[in-house]
UniProtKB/TrEMBL annotation:
Coiled coil: none annotated. This is Transcriptional regulator. Gene3D superfamilies: Electron Transport, Fmn-binding Protein, Chain A. It comes from Paecilomyces lecythidis. InterPro entries: Split_barrel_FMN-bd, TR_PAI2-type.
Amino acid sequence: MYLRAAHAESAISVLQQLIRENPLGILTTAISSPNYPLLQSSHIPFLLDVPESDDGAAPSNGILRGHVAKQNPQAKALMEALEAARKNSENEGEGRHPLELPDEVLVLFNGPYHHYVTPKFYTETKPDTGKVVPTWNYSAAQVYGKVRVYCDSKSEETASFLQKQIEELSQHAETSVMGYTGEGSKPSSWKVSDAPSSYVELLKKNIIGIEIRIDRLQGKFKMSQEMGPGDRQGVIEGFEKLGTEVGKGISETVKERASLLKPSK
């Protein structure tokens, strides 16, 4: 990710919040395989766990949890790589079979609003010099880390991981995404336990669990911070006048990010 200083977000907590509010990530892997493409990507909803840090310790980047259908070619490549890692550990005389793969994976999360920015919004520079060009405003976070694969349906470790994963992901989506909290006039949330247990067990046999320990977390809010105050105000007003939900969201985000800029000396 190109992190221009004006757009880079260095606060880990802000990027973690972006992930929580926009949990649909794009998992990208580069796994050398005789049977599947080297590069594969899948849209997967994730949960973010952030262990509490000890006093004075640096904040944890966190851990992502998700699941993938076994029929997904990317899942098949992950399982194939895990089996190869297990055979390698057996050849080297290691006891416990590994769950973590050696290569890094990437997960991309996008913010809720993105939009083309017309030069017409630059009400200061355009009439003055005409030296303006179109761009695109957006926000995003990128996660890099090692992936653990839970795919042995006979393993208690896999069963426990998948049960916890589907229950907590459903609860997060029902309450945080849908707003089904059961409070006041709001409906109560759907729970995994509402479905027949035999049906849930069958579905669990057809998915694999993935867990990514976040080694690096990077992100940016590209929201016209590089422009002068007059042009930024033109962007804010221009998007507001579009009268759309996305336009309003971009306008508010440009305004918010501008308020975080350090005043020029």
